[in-house]
Here is the input.
Amino acid sequence: MNQRQSDLKNNLESLKAKVQSLSSGNISIVAVSKYSQFDDIKSLYELGHRDFGENRIDDLEQKADLAKTHGLNDIRWHFIGRIQSNKIKRIVNVSNLHLIHSVSKLKHLEIINKESEKLDINTNVLLQVNLSNESQKDGFFNLDRNTINSAKGFKSLNVKGLMTMAENRSQCGDEVVKGTFDKCYQMYSQFFDHGILSMGMSGDFEIAIGSGSNMIRVGSILFK
Here is the structure.
């Protein structure tokens, strides 16, 4: 094990210990590898980590192909970036795609469903909600029962839960961030008996877990 691999091992173990100290539940960790080289992904995989997130389809395709070539057969890829209609087919076709976090329009669900039907697969998705009301962020500004039922009605989709991004913690403070996460948890509890609530990144995952998140998306604290 070289120094870089040792650093990654320590980062992963430290993060897992921190997460376990915050919750007795099962919290999934998605390693956001968008700024990382494939060697770092491979090193974390060899340490037993399986969930990796990318926000650009070009990078996701490239890294998924490398993972396949190197025999990382049970890696789980998460698409966490902004969705463009003309790139949905490429996302759905990614080898070992596990979950799309960032669905913010019913139109996108229709296209994902259509492309999944062509491949005779079911694609797992989360609905992204924009509870901070920031115009630069995607997401449903409001979810009601009709929207949820429409989303769950697609035969080749599995709507697993919700995803959100809170305000910038350093600018808005912990209470504002917690308020956003609490609202998302309440919405999740209203529409899902069980599933995935993807909340929290490197700068605010502790608050998110305290508000009920069961999946966090972290990059800088793992790959530093």
